[in-house]
């Protein structure tokens, strides 16, 4: 079957453009915004040739995987809009649970100490979804000013559905490797539905406290040893929480708490990087 929106998404005014092959769904979304698109537009493909992750890193979208971008022209400020990445993580986690309920995954940190039996999808700050400690999905937010007051936001979501890369510096996995028969179309249908509910909870930023609470219940590595690389320096300690602005809070050995707005997080055995 082809890509389609969930009825809840269509009723909420979302639209869909699907492509057999695309360069970058995020780049295309921002092009649409500059051309006057009002937003609430999903752009999806099963083959993305020029995808990218955080800090300009490449993101591989092999044939059969899901590359999806939601274009928004938010009415809220950029600071509040940035927290939509956490909304996206929760929506994807909900969609995975709905579209692939039969897979069995362990619970681990960066691939270490996996538990046997049925597990859960975990959210790694700020923008990854893990399955059994291995990266299943990445989320990338990009913005562009449209005029002096308005900006466009592209929320890119890449999911390893049919295949995953094997040459990464971190463990990676795919739905197929986890034994699921879920395809990209089925997952996107569930994602477009789950987004509506989670965005409604977010409520233009007014519901951020509820989003934060939900996110923390699925947080990878909460209470564990971590190392965060920030601007070339490494900060070590215990992952204590995310604060009201969704910053990553580390408690160092001396009790000092540091709130990190952006950085690369490593857990457990690799926290000495």
Protein described:
It is a single chain. By secondary structure, the protein is of the alpha+beta class. The protein has 2 domains: about 5-215, BirA Bifunctional Protein, domain 2 (2-Layer Sandwich); about 225-270, Roll (SH3 type barrels). It is built from 6 helices and 12 strands. The protein has helices at about 5-10, 25-35, 80, 85-100, 185-200, 210-215; strands spanning about 15-20, 40-45, 65-70, 120-125, 130, 135-145, 150-160, 225-230, 235-240, 250, 255-260, 265. A 7-stranded mixed β-sheet has the order 1-2-3-7-6-5-4, with helices on both faces. Strands 11-10-9-8-12 form a 5-stranded antiparallel β-sheet, with no helix packed on it. The longest helix has 19 residues, at about 185-200. The N and C termini lie far apart (about 45 Å).
Range of helix content: 10-25%
Strand order of the largest sheet: 1-2-3-7-6-5-4
The fold-level CATH name of the largest domain is BirA Bifunctional Protein, domain 2
What is the CATH class designation of the largest domain?
Alpha Beta
Work out the oligomeric state of the chains in this entry. single chain
Q: Mean pLDDT score, rounded?
A: 89
Q: How many separate domains?
A: 2
Question: How is this fold's topology laid out?
Answer:
Elements: H1 7-11, E1 15-19, H2 25-34, E2 41-45, E3 66-72, H3 78-81, H4 84-99, E4 121-124, E5 128-131, E6 134-145, E7 151-159, H5 184-202, H6 208-217, E8 225-230, E9 233-242, E10 248-251, E11 257-260, E12 264-267
Parallel strand pairs: 1-2
Antiparallel strand pairs: 2-3, 3-7, 4-5, 5-6, 6-7, 8-9, 8-12, 9-10, 10-11
């Amino acid at each position: 079957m082809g890509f389609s929106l969930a009825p809840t998404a269509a009723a909420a005014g979302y639209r869909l453009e699907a492509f057999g092959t695309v360069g970058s769904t995020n780049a295309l979304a921002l092009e649409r915004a500059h051309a006057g698109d009002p937003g609430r537009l999903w752009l999806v493909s099963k083959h993305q040739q020029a995808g990218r992750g955080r800090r300009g890193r490449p993101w591989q979208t092999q044939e059969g995987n899901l590359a999806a971008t939601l274009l928004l022209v938010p009415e809220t400020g950029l600071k509040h809009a940035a927290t939509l990445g956490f909304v996206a993580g929760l929506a994807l986690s909900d969609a995975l649970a709905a579209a692939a309920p039969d897979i069995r995954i362990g619970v681990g940190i960066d691939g270490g100490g996996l538990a046997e039996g049925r597990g859960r999808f975990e959210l790694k700050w700020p923008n990854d979804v893990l399955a059994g400690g291995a990266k299943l999905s990445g989320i990338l937010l990009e913005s562009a000013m449209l005029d002096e007051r308005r900006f466009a936001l592209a929320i890119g979501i890449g999911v390893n559905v049919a295949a995953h890369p094997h040459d990464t510096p971190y463990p990676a996995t795919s739905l197929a490797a986890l034994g699921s028969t879920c395809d990209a179309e089925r997952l996107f249908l569930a994602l477009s539905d789950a987004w509506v509910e989670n965005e409604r909870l977010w409520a233009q930023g007014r519901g951020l406290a509820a989003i934060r609470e939900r996110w923390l219940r699925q947080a990878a590595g909460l209470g564990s040893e971590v190392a965060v690389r920030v601007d070339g320096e490494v900060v070590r300690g215990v992952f204590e929480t995310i604060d009201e602005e969704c910053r990553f809070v580390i408690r160092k050995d001396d009790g000092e708490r540091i709130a990190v707005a952006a950085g690369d997080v490593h857990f457990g055995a690799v926290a000495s990087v």
